[in-house]
Amino acid sequence: MATSNKSSREAKFRVARMEAHQALQAEQIQRRKRDNLIAIIAMVAVLALAIVLALTVFSGRDSTDTAADDVASASATATATAAQTNSPTVPLAETAAGKTFTGTLSLNGQPLGVSLDGTAAPQAAAVFKSLADSGFMTGKSCHRLADSTDFGVLQCGSLNGDGQGDPAYQWGPVENTPADGKYPAGTIAVARANTTYSNGTQFFITFKDTTLPQDTGGYTIVGKVTSGLDVVTNIAKAGIADGATDGAPSTKVTIDSFQLK
Questions:
Q1: Smallest Cα–Cα separation from 69: which of 198, 180, 178, 175?
Q2: Tens digit of pLDDT for each residue in 41-89?
Q3: Would you give the end-to-end CA distance of the chain in angstroms?
Q4: Which residues are CB-neighbours of 212 under 8 A, at least 6 positions away?
Q5: Which end of the chain, N or C, is surrounded by fewer C-beta atoms within 10 Å?
Q6: What pLDDT is stored for residue 84 in this prediction?
């Protein structure tokens, strides 16, 4: 009887030990499953972040073509041209090289005298002379106004008035950009996205002395306002929508005409 009781106790002990071992194995398996799941989730998150970052870098917020943001990049969802080549319809720099174009940019019925420098920025001057001659700018809006310390710009020329660039019309390189990042009041410069070959149809006018970062190549100074800068200053005085320091002008701004000769 004693032997039988002992055997029974040993059997119960073996069963209990086996069940404990099985429970431990089950727990380990569940832990491995959880760890694997966490690892998979982490990998997916990293991959998603990498894709988002890649899209951000190669598409652009304007930035396309903007003058500020990361202070003056274009709000661009236009895909930046991978190769450093211009879109087929972009005019050749040679058409403006060594030339000076003067004329009038009219905003809300108020004229600004302007001058484009084909010697310092031949490619940019060729582009904006072509856009002016084709009537592209007529009816386009100035969708962005930024006004803060050492930064005052009015940005215009977006294809659809939303700050986005046109992926079918991109060009480079950056020309005539100041090494010190100083863009004096009255400067007309080219807005772009994140690469030096993501210029498009957008430009910005500084209505106060403005400092822009040059670490990504700077922004092409294509010309200057020769008269009527107070037109832009008055637009700035009217303020920015929602009281922001960077956004749509409180008063809608439309390009009535852009004429150069």
A1: 198
A2: 555 454 444 333 333 322 333 444 444 444 444 444 444 444 589 999 9
A3: 120
A4: 67, 68, 71, 72, 151, 181, 183, 218, 219
A5: N
A6: 87
Under-70 pLDDT residues of the chain: 1-83
Name the residue among 255, 52, 89 with its Cα closest to residue 167.
89
Token duo for residue 218: 């700077």
Q: CA gyration radius for the chain?
A: 30
Largest CA distance in the chain: 120
Tell me the two tokens of residue 87.
């879109």
Contacts of residue 260, Cβ cutoff 8 Å, sequence gap at least 6: 101, 102, 103, 114, 116, 128, 129, 132, 133
Of 159, 184, 171, 163, nearest to 121 by C-alpha is: 171
Closest CA to 118 of 204, 223, 220, 203: 223
The per-residue pLDDT for 31 is: 54
What pLDDT is stored for residue 139 in this prediction?
98
Report the distance separating Cα 229 and Cα 186, nearest Å: 6
Is the bond preceding residue 122 a cis peptide, omega within 30 degrees?
no
| Nearest in space to 186 (alpha carbons), one of 202, 171, 206 | 206
